Amino acid sequence: MKKILLYTFVILIINACGTTKTSTTILPSKDDIAIKTAPDPISIGIAKKPRNIILMIGDGMGITQITAGLYSNDNKLNLERCKVIGLHKPYASNKLITDSAAAATSFACGVKTYNGAIGVDADTMPVKTILEYAEERELATGLVATSTIVHATPASFIAHQPQRKMYEEIARDFLDTEIDLFIGGGKKYFDRREDKADLLKILESRGYKVGHYAEGDLPKKLETEKNYAYLTSDSDPLTKSAGRDYLPHATKLAVDFLHARGKGFFLMVEGSQIDWGGHANDSDYIIAEMLDFDKAIGHVLDYAEKDGETLVIITADHETGGYAINPGSEMGKIEGAFTSDYHTADLVPVFAYGPGAEAFAGFYENTAIFDKMMEAFEWTTDDK
Ligand code: MG
Ligand code: ZN
Q1: Å from CA of 29 to ligand 1 middle
Q2: Span 53-59+72-280+303-325+333-377: which CATH code?
Q3: Which of 164, 193, 312, 379 could tie 101 with a disulfide, CB 3.0–4.6 Å?
Q4: pLDDT digits over 228-247, tens only?
């Protein structure tokens, strides 16, 4: 395909220069071959500043989780399409082994903080998130997760609470930011609350189109006039193997919806349950969730490839389980082993694609994910 495009381009240039010889046979020159084998400038990100950023977090997705997914899927993953790879240091401010709240807050706010912190620093002071900066600068914003939407990872991008378990308070924080779209579980934290408030009604009164699992599946297409909220379950969504299948579709819906807003966007998509498979020391659970997340990655990269103005960053908050692929494993059959039922302190891989991607090569703190996203957008923080 690229070859044909290249030749067409050469012919067009020749025509543009007024050459009238129509029967010239054009053979690839040495230079043409060099162009063809060089990495695509969009994929390594030297093109320009991005208009959109999509941050994809595989919770608990260490190198082994990725490898197990790869070898269980005919030795291929969409993740391989990213040509820029880095490593981040995932430790928390108070513990070497981070939890998802501290880690997501580092991505969202650029600060190291304590385990359990949601969008607050080590002194429990609220810190503005990348999603809030995006809202302020009138970009469209979105969150998609396969946990509840008030769970640590998505919550850290929109809420400011001293403890991750404060689900009802986190749900209320969704009303403080005019997020354009969110899709995830946890309906009960919005409409069956201790304070009896019905946050879904409040969202509706503020012009959101609100949907939930009990009324039917996610629509095939979304109307784009109204903001959109969809609750996929009352509490935790099902596992992939128990029948949950919304993540790839929800991701595609979210991207198309935010794109249609026509003003640039920030979207965070989480494959939440790779981590839960690690906690359960269940290899099959990890693999099913990993491959589901990789499908969502495929949709995002298809979009980014076409769009050319979207920076995609794919990473994890930490590894979970001390997962290893043990002897006895074969291609298509993983013998998983675990050293822990909690997170580990392993370095975490970062994959990037699109304009600005090259900044994600190298070795850095998890807080640098925030810094690099801000730099890609050419934004500065309020305190600078
Ligand atoms: Mg999570
Ligand atoms: Zn976990």
Answers
A1: 51
A2: 3.40.720.10
A3: 164
A4: 999 999 999 999 999 999 99
